Structures are given as structure tokens and as C-alpha cells.
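Sync notes, pocket subgroup
Present: LS, DG
LS reminded everyone that the earlier model was apo-only. Rerun requested with thymidine-5'-diphosphate included. Inputs:
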Amino acid sequence: MKGLFITFEGIDGSGKSTQAMLLKERFNQLNRPVVFTKEPGGTPLGEKIREILLNDNMNPVSEFLLFAADRKEHIKKIIIPSLSNGKIVISDRFADSSVAYQGFGRGVPIDFINFVHQNILSGLKPDLTFIIDILPETGLERLTGKDRIERGGIDFLNRVREGYLKLAGRDKRFVVIDGTAAPEKVANSVWEFFSRWESDNG
Ligand code: TYD
């Protein structure tokens, strides 16, 4: 049985983690087999990598390669086994985060990022990616204690957001959802889209 791979993306403070959890709860209520996971830090090794990433200053290429190492573990240990068991896998961030943050945000060449991804993704691609979109100003207002990457500032987050919107224009798996409304409203938009998508593609 083939599973379903759904990812949530967006800038810091967009509310994508809340939305990923709310979608998971809907599937739980429907008794559908679902696994919730996240990047960075979905595995024990990933948790250690996450600590370094969120605290230590480093070159953008090193930063990308650490996210990539975390991703490879996550794919091998969690995502692929769960999909092979027919589960719906919901990941709070995945490869598009690196393209948006390290590529568009920090200037790591996108070709290099794509090359590394080709070698670590084992052909894996999300079936559906929700981009929860908000303005960086709004996102930053919502955040309390900020980590190193979140402290990148408005210009950085603007580049990340633009990057996501560019990606969304390139592939039909992306759905951009306005994240400014109340969480329940945003969750309803996500669910409506998903239901339609599933009846068209199921
Ligand atoms: P975290 O607090 O774990 O998650 P979030 O803020 O999304 O709830 O922090 C993750 C940070 O790492 C966030 O600022 C985005 C950033 N990030 C990248 O820069 N590149 C990546 O590939 C990933 C997965 C995350």
C-alpha cells in the first residue's frame, strides 16, 4: 500500500506547525493512519544537529549541509518506513525549506542544493506541499524567543518568502494558503483543499 507524503512550509511565525498538527488531528479523528514529523530534528541524531544549527554561527554552505544530513536521517529512519507501511506522513518542513532559507535567503547556489537533494532524497517528493503564507512583519510579531535563524531579520525573511512563492509557481504540488486568518479558519482552508485534491487524485 502506498502512503501519502504531505509537507508544510512557510516562514517563521507563519503558523505552519500549528496547521500541520491540526491536519494530523483531522486524520486521527477519521481513524486514518498518520505520522507527524518535523525538520530539523525528527530523529535522535537530527535533534543533536538541530541544537548546533539553531545556536552556532556558521557558513551558509555548512548550514545547508547540516540540514541535509538531518534530512537524510529523517528520510531513511522515519519517512520512507512510514510511507512503506501505507501511512500518511505529515512533515513540518522538508527539502523546500533549504531551497527557500539557504538558497533564496542566504545565497547558497540553488543548483548545488538541488544536486545534493537529488542524491539524498532517493526519488522522494511530497505529494502535496502547503505553504502557509504571511508577511515577515506579521510572522516576527508572533514569535517570542527567537533562535539564530529567526534572528535573520526582515530582509532575510522577505527573500525566503519570495523564494517559496517562486517555488509555488513552478510545481503543481504546492498550495499557497493565506496564513493571516485565525488558525481554525486557515485549517478549514487546508482541509477543503486536501479533500478536493484527494477526490481528484485518489
Ligand atoms: P524550529 O524551531 O525547529 O522550527 P520552526 O521555527 O519551523 O517551528 O527551527 C527551524 C529553523 O530552521 C527555522 O528558522 C527554519 C530553519 N530551516 C532552514 O533554514 N533550512 C532548512 O532546511 C530547515 C528544515 C529549517
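DG: Helices lie at 16-29, 44-55, 60-84, 95-105, 110-120, 136-142, 154-170, 183-201.
LS: The pocket of thymidine-5'-diphosphate is lined by residues 12, 17, 39-40, 50, 67, 93, 97-98, 101-102, 147, 149-150 (CB under 6 Å).
Action: DG to write up.
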